[in-house]
Amino acid sequence: MGNCHDCFYGGPKNTNVRLSLPVVCFVWEIAMIVLFGIFVRYDEETDAHWSEFKIKHNISSNIENDFYYRYPSFQDVHVMIFVGFGFLMTFLKRYSFGGVGFNFLIAAFGLQWALLMQGWFHSLDHETGKILIGVENIINADFCCAGTLIAYGAILGKVSPVQLLVVTLFGVTLYAVEEFIILSVLHCRDAGGSMVIHAFGGYYGLAISWILYRPNLHRSSRLHGSVYHSDVFAMIGTLFLWMFWPSFNSAIANHGDGQHRAAINTYLSLAACVLTAVAISSMSQKTGKLDMVHIQNATLAGGVAMGTSAEFMISPYGSLIVGFFCGIISTCGFIVVTPFLEKYLKIQDTCGIHNLHAVPGMLGGFIGAIVAATATESVYGKQGLIDTLGLTGNFAGRSPGTQGGYQAAGTCVAIVFGLVGGAIVGLILKLPIWGDAADDNCFDDEVYWEVPEEEESIPPVLEYNNHMTHKNQDLCESNFSVEQI
Amino acid sequence: MGNCHDCFYGGPKNTNVRLSLPVVCFVWEIAMIVLFGIFVRYDEETDAHWSEFKIKHNISSNIENDFYYRYPSFQDVHVMIFVGFGFLMTFLKRYSFGGVGFNFLIAAFGLQWALLMQGWFHSLDHETGKILIGVENIINADFCCAGTLIAYGAILGKVSPVQLLVVTLFGVTLYAVEEFIILSVLHCRDAGGSMVIHAFGGYYGLAISWILYRPNLHRSSRLHGSVYHSDVFAMIGTLFLWMFWPSFNSAIANHGDGQHRAAINTYLSLAACVLTAVAISSMSQKTGKLDMVHIQNATLAGGVAMGTSAEFMISPYGSLIVGFFCGIISTCGFIVVTPFLEKYLKIQDTCGIHNLHAVPGMLGGFIGAIVAATATESVYGKQGLIDTLGLTGNFAGRSPGTQGGYQAAGTCVAIVFGLVGGAIVGLILKLPIWGDAADDNCFDDEVYWEVPEEEESIPPVLEYNNHMTHKNQDLCESNFSVEQI
Amino acid sequence: MGNCHDCFYGGPKNTNVRLSLPVVCFVWEIAMIVLFGIFVRYDEETDAHWSEFKIKHNISSNIENDFYYRYPSFQDVHVMIFVGFGFLMTFLKRYSFGGVGFNFLIAAFGLQWALLMQGWFHSLDHETGKILIGVENIINADFCCAGTLIAYGAILGKVSPVQLLVVTLFGVTLYAVEEFIILSVLHCRDAGGSMVIHAFGGYYGLAISWILYRPNLHRSSRLHGSVYHSDVFAMIGTLFLWMFWPSFNSAIANHGDGQHRAAINTYLSLAACVLTAVAISSMSQKTGKLDMVHIQNATLAGGVAMGTSAEFMISPYGSLIVGFFCGIISTCGFIVVTPFLEKYLKIQDTCGIHNLHAVPGMLGGFIGAIVAATATESVYGKQGLIDTLGLTGNFAGRSPGTQGGYQAAGTCVAIVFGLVGGAIVGLILKLPIWGDAADDNCFDDEVYWEVPEEEESIPPVLEYNNHMTHKNQDLCESNFSVEQI
């Protein structure tokens, strides 16, 4: 079978990842073990000394352990990262293995590096020099991976797994730095990461894709689309992202009303977004038919855009308004902007992350700035305003208006980090050592995966097909192995 | 390809939803924003004033926020609504997009209207005239959508998305009214909604389907069945419903033992139900083979039937008995009653909701009545009885026996609302303005979705198929585009 | 169609489960109802007397009910049992119904028996003679089923559902006994069940498969493999197992830091495991391509091996080391050991449970022994050491070193129970009364399921296929029904 198959696809496809992929994985994992050995320890709520800590800090019950506040949300976020992002990328007819499999690989790779990078910036115990980790850290590590997985959406099908590991290594590093600047230096609030995750990740991916532009990508056009069941698989990803987005935006919000409000605002925004995405999708086709690409993606824009303001008092109708406009903007992006980007700006964006992450993330950042700037004590209460905007310590005197300005500045920082970082990483990926596929083998799992043969998937009908296949063998000059039939 | 395709399916299929679907979505969503702006605000546990509320009400910890009692259950319910119901309806060979996609649309549409309708009846702050929402409201909104999604099961593949939005609009409205009568006026207990969700939703859908009877539906019989992988997709829906049903029945039960007991009773009932559903399915076939329709549906009847009594002291073996009989009744319904309904009562019930929701829901209502009527202080404890049956305030003097009578009456109210409401909505849907598919285009995603072409899904084999296709082109007088091959 | 189909598959396939399967299901379920009626009641936290219990025991809040500590983890475990194990076994091209469907049946069957068996050993109220159940019991019941579902992996596709019910009946019984010996008599710690679940279940399945060796299994080799989309379905199982494994290992760990630490250790181990599994998979192929079998299975070995030590202070880098080596060992197992076992030891292990459960489980047991033996008060704190190793009551004086010895002994007990128990159960399954499939019908859903016909799954292309099919009918001497086309 192999011979025949190759004749259709233009010869051997050995991309030589056999050496580079294992080497990178092993070297990396060993480095992680060493660095974790030096730096990473359990925090007080995770350590077996917790029973003493409880007594010392007069904590009355085990249920006050942060685990019980955040672990259910963590699991939802975890599902979004691995099943949500993973299955959303199975929509291509012959790149489902790569979509879900490489997503799995790079998220598992990225979260370890994220624990270290974010730990050095945020969770370092300055007395001992150790990074102390607990449930909030693993949520943040998952968030950090999300930035890179978004970028993967733009280059899906066009890069090798080794390149993806490089994208992840730099993506996590850049993320940790921009997050430090935005959250710690500028002291922005961004519980659900409109800025630090989506705007950064979106522009990071677009910049990489711009540098890696393939003028002859049309040679893979036979594989650049979905089939019926691959679209249904992608809906698994869409729905798990959509359903668990309230957990995403509330996972690291303040205990109590903060988490509660973030979940409800996101729930509402996402619901509104579905209706306008459907409306625009139907309007865009001559016959009013819906396009699965829009349903799979644009319905999620409402969650992205609520990332910053979900924990604010944006009010229920405010959430609906955000979802309303983001559904429209995102769907129009798929219809108008993605083809424009490809044609005029030479940006090939496989999953349309421009419309789902980059633009809604940027909008979410600015919406958050406006909502923060207009916050008042009458709406939030005196303590509520301080808690929600985090105006304590060095930032105790900052007014809501000033906070809004900093939020807007933070959004710009995220975009700049994405664009500049992505361009640099793109140039690194241009080096001819990474084993990426040829232009006519993009979007093809055969390049990096052992793909099962299909002849016998549907026994009775295929018996006929095989009979016919024999008759037509001369067309292919192949030497079919039929002994298993 | 289009030309050829049309010649198989009898000409153009423009159902003119291009105007009506976007208009309905936009008008509706704008109405929602206006109404939310006028009416909907955060409740005390969601508002930023929570820190003051805590002090005023002497609440010691953020973990006492209702969010932590109910949010994990909410997320499970959310998965049931969107992935559970959605994927359960992907079983048809060419209506998987419609199954999961329209389910997504109408649930997102319905939950907003449900927040308003249920809010006016249940959560209105009479001082300010505002609806105050929190996590319990969004669980209830999801529940309310479930009623309509059940009805969708009966008419799956036979109605347009615009009709579905009408079904949802009226379904949510009817639901809110019958729920008010059953829970507030009659003061029934129905934590998992055997009555208010399943009996109502089931009979609502059956009545609609009865009015919309299509005598020539057999013209779509080529599409009225599953294929191998569509049945596997449907199992995703089945399993997420089955697994999370304990959360469904316990989500809004009383804090503490109420939620705990509801989850365990449902867990047991569902387990028993699987065994009897399998047994009857095997017995019903000459060769003892199992039928996927039964496994996908009848295994869930035990959860439906425990909706009312899950929070009662039905005892573990009582739960098993409920599951035991519901598995039998539901499977027999699929084998005997569904064909009978179609042949003699002219009710075409695509998913068999009669057997999964209508009958088990009704039974669940009456089981709840019996269990409530036989409740005693020795079994529940004095306070336990009051809490579990909700015999406080105006209802403090009601005896368990009387409560049982009201529970039975509540079940009848739900059924009457379903049947009468469904008949009226069915008549509205008969108006020739909704863009429903012709009899020979039912169960076909091509009518409302851009469906990907399939020729190249399996490259090597398909090359042969394409060769053969060329030879046979004259059969179709088509003009295949082959340039991308 | 039936006639034609049979001619390919060698005549009728009635395996006579039509009598045995329903009889076993009914008899069993009735027995369960009787036994539950005699023995099973709600525990204090599930019973309506909880409000009195709270006052008596000075419990300040409903949130202290064990439900809120464990229910989110229970739901994650529940997903692993039904979707995780179920979908992991859908990878075969024509045994997806059997994979997910029989998994569903036997888990629902097993959990009821597990509640009784484990209840008699662990939760018996000696005053009343009743088993008192709550959320921890249903988690343990799910765990107990996991042992049998692992065994199912070895015999997937080769046994009848009746045989599976026998495997489950004995598997749950053996599990309860070995669990009692390991946890209660030897007083081992095994929160995530490396020993009691994975080592036991793995060797139990291998022993059964060894006894049931089929020398002519190659006759089914046409069905012994995956197709493209069945591999994607299997990834659903893999990912839900992988994502929720932190909940699995922490579900019944100690409240507070115990659950917290177990989750984080498992999270880290699994992440490391993915990288080394990918590395070895790529190295094992001439062209560096990845093998889906490894990605679907070996990536999970890190969770299995952390089952015992997840709640210990193994430290974050210790967790990474465990994952690192288990990913290597498991992948090498798939490449080297599984073929060896089949060729030389006559063990046909369909899913490779040797590499995913038996060996990592055994390793996990010994790793736990080492970690326990090296525990010190300085690392755990005085109270932390007592709590984590459970050195209270009769075991208060036991040193960590001694505890380590007992842990190692416990691992051996689990393996012996698996091997001996499996061999005995295998012999019982050899009786010619169970309706198992012939050697040439293994891995074929047609034997036990009504499988939908496939001809029309893809309308336009299939029209051509049907035309061609007609031409070729003589090849089959069939009488195709074409009236529905």
TrEMBL record, chains A, B, C:
GO terms for cellular component: plasma membrane. It holds the Pfam family Ammonium_transp. One of its GO terms (biological process) is ammonium homeostasis. The chain crosses the membrane at residues 21-42, 74-92, 99-118, 138-157, 164-186, 192-213, 225-244, 264-283, 295-314, 320-341, 353-375, 408-429. It comes from the Eukaryota. Keywords: Ammonia transport, Cell membrane, Glycoprotein, Membrane, Transmembrane, Transmembrane helix, Transport. One of its GO terms (molecular function) is ammonium channel activity. InterPro entries: Ammonium/urea_transptr, NH4_transpt_AmtB-like_dom, RhesusRHD. It is a multi-pass membrane protein. It is found in: Cell membrane. Its main location: membrane. Residues 65-440 form the Ammonium transporter AmtB-like domain. Functions as an ammonia transporter. May play a role in the elimination of ammonia in the gill. Homotrimer. Belongs to the ammonium transporter (TC 2.A.49) family. Rh subfamily. This is Ammonium transporter AmtB-like domain-containing protein.
